[in-house]
Write a structure and sequence with these properties.
17% helix; 32% strand; VC0467-like; AlgH-like; single chain; UPF0301 protein DC53_21165; alpha+beta
């Protein structure tokens, strides 16, 4: 089994699940036990400042970071937050996912987001997307997803409404020409 860590899953145009329709999911972990990822293009109607207020973390509303949207990372444990960010050490619970991307789940990263100590780039998701053993592999066989290596520019620098199209364009072909049917020789 080849790990899909640090890859994007791009929902096929035929994906009907309302949560994953036109989703781009960053895969944080993938091994023989299953996979875990965060959808990076499903904003919810909450800003970083509002989220921090809700969980009683002081924040500076004058900072642009306080106005950034929070994302629905997936349908699992939607009360749990994840911060994907550019490399910055010193948080209690961080994991390096690539040379350009870290994930942190501890509150200390949240407290830094509207300060000078914040990571240079970040997105917050509530919830995650999870697959049990063999489930993601079956979805790939069912032609539900396309896979490309993750590009931090799509996560951090591409407007949310263009992330799916930008990820698709990295494939190098016109997605409208794809058949929704899986082919097997």
């Amino acid at each position: 089994m080849q790990s899909l860590e640090n890859h994007f899953l791009i929902a096929m145009p035929s994906m009907q699940d309302p949560f994953f329709k036109r989703a781009v999911t960053y895969i944080c972990e993938h091994n023989e036990d299953g996979a875990m990822g965060l959808v990076i293009n499903q904003p919810i109607n909450v800003t970083v400042g509002e989220l921090l207020d809700k969980i009683e973390i002081d924040n500076d509303k004058t900072q642009q970071a306080a106005q950034v949207a929070v994302y629905a990372g997936g349908p699992v444990k939607t009360d749990r937050g994840f911060v994907l960010h550019s490399p910055k050490l010193g948080y209690t619970s961080s994991q390096k996912l690539s040379s350009d991307i870290m994930i942190t789940t501890s509150k200390d990263v949240l407290a830094s987001l509207t300060t000078a100590q914040a990571p240079e780039q970040f997105i917050i998701t509530l919830g995650y997307s999870g697959w049990e053993q063999g489930q993601l592999e079956q979805e790939l066989l069912d032609n539900s997803w396309l896979i490309i290596e993750a590009d931090p520019k799509i996560i951090f620098n591409t407007p949310v409404e263009k992330r799916w199209e930008k990820a698709v364009s990295m494939l190098g072909f016109d997605i409208s020409q794809l058949s929704p049917e899986a082919g097997h020789a």
